[in-house]
Each structure stands twice: as structure tokens, then as C-alpha cells.
């Protein structure tokens, strides 16, 4: 229990051991939370007066014993510790050792009426930040200011290191995820294309056979449809992973926000499903100017935050609504709304500050919203929040609409259909995919497949010519990029006929290459109609009939 208090001149109360003291000063002074290890009332009062004169508003806990000091360390946080060098039952060096044992980073300043130079040097070597003589306390506020500044700097550096570690982990995870998605794409493309092929054959067979055989064939329709739906879901997951795991790229272009938002909701579904009903309200929205991967990161973070603002269980009692719409002046608007816990008024102005979080330890880093704000600002947009405790929150992202004259790389909606059969070659290091694409195209074109880009290049150098060359972008022996560059030199008319297949251009070289060539690209897992559309466009451009 604290000792009885006594009034002290200068606006202070109770400078006895074990009690808190708050000075009554003007609002312009800087608050200073400190532990004062001092047994003399008069000396304690002098220290407080000197800190006030230096522009501080002291909030202090005065202690005189080891037990009180250790308790004080647990009751923090504290800005600084000021300790007398020697007390009847305790001393400053012991207090310094007790502080260091906790691992807390709190500046420690010794004060003493009689301290020799050798003792002062020993104290500094032991870890004390400074020492001040009681006979001249005018230097104390200066020492405090310096140590607080140094402490702030250390905390900036620590947070920067933490952010760097997090960024490196995210980049590593993204690269790994992109690699996994790329590896999944080839077998998935084979499965989807073959299933489509089998389904078409069964349909044709059912129409051309007797009624009994047709009925038996019809029994395959439902399991094939279910399998196709399951593979389509896997395809969507792979596309989502590729979207959110692309390495850092800051280029901007045309972005379909509905596609990005829908991908984000699928990625966050496991967080949502046990907490709330998901409502998708996708209203007509213009194409946005932005970066697909970065915008996806923003929307995913907002959705996960909204889900985590609602408790698990009783999902029917909560709602998470995701909206896209056209805002004022033709802006693209994305809104994420929840009816969860809401954000307190005292926190609302800090939620975009780096490392600020109201989540429990281990749940959040406090970087998510800060990163979101930075990304949206870099894209020329704004992000705002409206929230009320107990009623929920609304986060609104506003983005610029893309120019209408910007090139669109989507396939034509009504592709031209060439008359006659074209000579098509497929080069992919996955033999199964080559066979699959051959089966998918051989009813309309003369198709062959090879696993070696070098072999194909040798044939072209020897004089062979193809109407269309479908080449995988990334292959071990010779990449599609290298094949194209060789063709540019030896057979430029053949280079213009190349269609690239990619499971995800996740290297900087691949991204730069695709951005710099006019040739079309088809992403795996592909659909037959998309590939036929690209082939038809190439044939039309090259005048093949």
C-alpha cells in the first residue's frame, strides 16, 4: 500500500515511495512516463521541477526498494528510468542489472550527489545511457531528450527489420505459390482438355446410336459434368493463386475489378464461412487503372479484416457485403462492409499507421492497412473508413477508371473463322499436353506436337514452314522466348505466327518479354475455344485462308 501523501509546492502531490505522481502543467508540455528510484523527497522534487523546466509533464512512479522496482517494470510501459546511484537498501547499478534482466529497452540515467569518474565510466560500460550530478541537474532534460530520441530511432530500425522480414517471407511464399501453380497448370490443362474431348465424343456417339445405347451413354453425362465442375474450381483456385502471388511488379494497366474482387472472396472464403453470410453486390463498373496483383492484395486484406471483426459461429447473424460500383466522376468503387465489432473512435485515426493493430498478439502485424493505403495511393486512388463500435465498419476504395483508348488484350468476342485447314505445330515439354492439344485441334487443323524447341527450330531453319506455332513460354532445353528470338533473326515471318502458352509468367524476364512482343498469349489451363480464337486471329492477320 502507498504511504500517506503530502502536498508539495509547485503543483505536485505524493512523492513518497510506491506512489504515482502526475504533474499539473499546461497541455503544451510533453508527457513523460518514468520510474524514479530515489529515497530523498527533496531530491525527487528537484528532479521533477527540472524536467518540467525542460518542457516535460512527468507521470512518475517513485520506488526505493528492489521489490518496488521490479513491480514497476512489470507495470509499464515507461519512457525512461532515472535512478539515484546509491540508496540505503538498493543502488542504481543493481537497478540497472534488474532492468537488463527483463530485456526491456528503457533508457536508464543515473543521478548522484557524489559519483567519481571511475564509477561513472563503469556505469556507462555496464549499460547506463548517462549520468547526471545532483549539483547540476540542468543537463537532465537534455539527456532525457537525447535518450528518448535514440530509443525512437531504435524502435524505427526494429520495425523496419520486422517489415523487411515480413516482406521477404511474403515474397518467398509468393514465389513458391507461383511455382506450385505453374506446375499444377500442365496436368490440369491436360485433364480439362481431355474431359472436354471425351464429353464431345460421348455426345456425338449418343446422338448417332440406337436409343438403348444412347440411354447408356447419357449415364456418363452427370459424372462428367461433376468432374468438369470440380476441375473448374481447381482452375479458379490456381488462377487466384497466380493473381495474388506474382512477385513485386509496379506496372499499371487495365484491371477488371470484379474479377479481382471475386478472386479475393474465394481466397478468403475459409475465413468468412464460419463467421458471416457473404453477399456479393457487383454493379456495373468501368475498367480500372491499376495493378491486378496489388489491388488483389488490398481487397483480400480488407475482406479478411472484415471477417475477423466478427466472431466464429452464428454465421447467420452476421453479414459481409462486398460491392463494386461506379462512383462520382466515373470512379471505380469497391466497398467491404461488415456488421462486426467496429472500431473505437480513439483508434480510427491510427488504423493506417504502420504496426498499429487492435488484434490479439499473433493475429496481426499492424502492417496490412498501412500497406493497403500505400498501394491505393500509388494507384492514384483513395481509401476511407466509416465505423461505429458494435455496428460494424465500411471500407471504401476509390480508383481511377482506365482510358477507353488503352489497348485491350482480351480475345475477340466473335473470332474470325478461316476457311480451310491450317498447319499447326505445338511445342511443349509436357508430352501429355501436346497430345491433348493435338486431339483438341485436329478436327479443324492439321496438327503435330513436339517436346523440343531446338528440334522445331532446326526444321524451320531447314525450310519447313507452319501457319501457326503454339509454344510454351518456359521450357528447360530452350524456352519459347529463345525460340522466338531465333525466329526473329532467321525466319521473321514465322515469329509473327507464334502463340505463347504460359502457366504464369512469374519471372521478371518473362514478364518483360511478354510486355514487349505483339504475339498473343493463352494462359493454362486453357479452353479450346480460346485457343481456336487465337489461331483464327493469327491466320487472319497473316492472310491465311
Describe the secondary-structure layout.
Layout: E1 7-8, E2 12-13, E3 19-22, E4 30-37, H1 41-53, E5 56-63, H2 66-74, E6 80-84, H3 92-102, E7 108-112, H4 117-126, E8 130-133, H5 140-208, H6 211-218, H7 221-245, E9 253-255, H8 257-267, H9 269-272, E10 277-282, E11 288-290, H10 292-308, E12 319-326, E13 332-338, H11 345-348, H12 368-378, E14 382-388, E15 392-399, E16 423-427, H13 431-441, E17 446-450, H14 453-461, E18 468-472, H15 480-490, H16 492-495, E19 498-502, H17 508-516, E20 521-523, H18 528-541
Parallel strand pairs: 4-5, 4-6, 6-7, 7-8, 10-12, 16-17, 16-18, 18-19, 19-20
Antiparallel strand pairs: 1-2, 3-5, 9-11, 12-13, 13-15, 14-15
What does this structure look like?
Helix 8 (257-267) crosses helix 10 (292-308), helix 10 runs antiparallel to helix 12 and helix 14 packs parallel to helix 15 (480-490). The protein is elongated. 33% of the residues are buried. Strand 14 and strand 15 form a beta hairpin. The chain has helices at 41-53, 66-74, 92-102, 117-126, 140-208, 211-218, 221-245, 257-267, 269-272, 292-308, 345-348, 368-378, 431-441, 453-461, 480-490, 492-495, 508-516, 528-541, and strands at residues 7-8, 12-13, 19-22, 30-37, 56-63, 80-84, 108-112, 130-133, 253-255, 277-282, 288-290, 319-326, 332-338, 382-388, 392-399, 423-427, 446-450, 468-472, 498-502, 521-523. A six-stranded mixed sheet has the order 3-5-4-6-7-8, sandwiched between helices. Strands 10-12-13-15-14 form a five-stranded mixed sheet, covered by helices on one side. It is of the alpha/beta class and 545 residues long. It has three domains: 7-153, Response regulator (Rossmann fold, 3-Layer(aba) Sandwich); 251-408, Histidine kinase-like ATPase, C-terminal domain (Heat Shock Protein 90), CATH 3.30.565.10; 423-541, Response regulator (Rossmann fold, 3-Layer(aba) Sandwich), CATH 3.40.50.2300. The protein is 46% helix and 19% strand. The longest helix has 69 residues, at 140-208.
Amino acid at each position: 500500500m502507498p504511504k500517506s501523501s503530502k502536498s508539495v509546492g509547485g503543483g505536485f502531490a505524493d512523492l513518497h515511495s510506491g506512489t504515482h505522481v502526475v504533474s499539473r502543467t499546461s497541455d503544451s508540455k510533453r508527457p513523460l512516463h518514468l520510474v524514479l528510484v530515489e529515497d530523498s523527497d527533496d531530491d525527487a522534487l528537484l528532479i521533477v521541477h527540472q524536467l518540467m523546466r525542460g518542457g516535460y509533464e512527468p507521470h512518475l512512479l517513485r520506488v526505493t526498494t528492489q521489490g518496488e522496482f521490479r513491480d514497476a517494470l512489470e507495470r509499464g510501459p515507461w519512457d525512461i528510468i532515472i535512478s539515484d546511484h546509491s540508496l540505503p537498501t538498493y543502488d542504481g547499478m543493481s537497478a540497472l542489472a534488474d532492468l537488463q534482466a527483463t530485456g526491456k529497452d528503457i533508457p536508464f540515467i543515473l543521478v548522484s550527489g557524489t559519483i567519481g569518474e571511475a564509477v561513472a565510466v563503469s556505469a556507462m560500460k555496464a549499460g547506463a545511457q548517462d549520468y547526471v550530478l545532483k549539483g547540476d541537474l540542468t543537463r537532465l532534460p537534455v539527456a532525457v531528450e537525447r535518450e528518448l530520441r535514440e530509443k525512437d530511432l531504435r524502435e524505427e530500425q526494429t520495425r523496419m527489420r520486422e517489415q523487411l522480414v515480413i516482406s521477404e517471407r511474403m515474397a518467398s511464399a509468393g514465389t513458391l505459390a507461383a511455382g506450385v501453380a505453374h506446375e499444377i497448370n500442365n496436368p490440369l490443362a491436360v485433364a480439362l482438355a481431355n474431359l472436354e474431348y471425351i464429353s464431345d465424343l460421348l455426345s456425338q456417339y449418343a446422338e448417332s446410336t440406337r436409343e438403348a445405347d444412347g440411354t447408356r451413354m447419357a449415364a456418363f453425362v452427370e459424372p462428367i459434368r461433376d468432374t468438369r465442375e470440380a476441375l473448374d474450381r481447381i482452375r479458379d483456385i490456381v488462377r487466384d493463386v497466380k493473381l495474388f502471388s506474382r512477385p513485386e511488379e509496379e506496372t499499371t494497366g487495365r484491371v477488371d475489378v470484379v474479377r479481382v474482387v471475386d478472386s479475393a472472396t474465394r481466397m478468403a472464403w475459409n475465413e468468412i464461412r464460419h463467421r458471416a453470410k457473404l453477399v456479393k453486390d457487383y454493379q456495373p463498373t468501368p475498367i480500372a487503372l491499376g495493378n491486378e496483383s496489388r489491388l488483389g492484395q488490398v481487397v483480400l486484406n480488407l475482406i479478411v479484416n472484415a471477417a475477423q471483426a466478427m466472431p466464429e459461429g452464428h454465421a447467420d447473424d452476421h453479414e459481409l457485403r462486398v460491392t463494386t460500383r461506379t462512383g462520382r466522376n466515373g470512379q471505380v468503387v469497391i466497398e467491404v462492409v461488415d456488421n462486426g465489432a467496429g472500431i473505437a473512435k480513439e483508434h480510427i485515426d491510427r488504423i493506417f499507421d504502420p504496426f498499429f493493430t487492435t488484434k490479439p498478439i499473433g493475429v496481426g502485424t499492424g502492417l496490412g492497412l498501412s500497406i493497403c493505403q500505400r498501394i491505393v495511393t500509388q494507384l492514384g486512388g483513395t481509401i476511407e473508413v466509416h465505423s461505429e463500435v458494435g455496428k460494424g465498419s465500411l471500407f471504401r476504395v476509390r480508383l481511377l477508371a482506365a482510358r477507353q483508348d488503352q489497348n485491350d488484350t482480351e480475345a475477340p468476342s466473335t473470332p474470325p473463322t478461316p476457311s480451310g485447314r491450317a498447319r499447326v505445330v505445338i511445342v511443349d515439354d509436357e508430352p501429355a499436353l501436346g497430345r491433348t492439344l493435338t486431339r483438341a485441334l485436329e478436327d479443324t487443323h492439321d496438327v503435330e506436337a513436339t517436346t523440343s524447341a531446338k528440334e522445331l527450330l532446326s526444321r524451320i531453319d531447314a525450310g519447313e514452314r507452319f501457319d501457326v506455332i503454339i509454344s510454351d513460354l518456359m521450357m528447360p532445353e530452350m524456352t519459347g522466348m529463345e525460340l522466338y528470338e531465333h525466329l526473329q533473326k532467321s525466319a521473321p515471318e514465322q515469329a509473327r505466327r507464334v502463340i505463347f502458352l504460359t502457366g504464369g509468367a512469374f519471372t521478371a524476364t518473362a514478364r518483360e518479354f511478354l510486355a514487349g512482343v505483339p504475339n498473343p498469349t493463352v494462359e493454362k489451363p486453357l479452353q479450346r475455344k480460346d485457343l481456336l480464337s487465337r489461331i483464327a486471329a493469327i491466320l487472319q492477320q497473316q492472310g491465311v485462308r
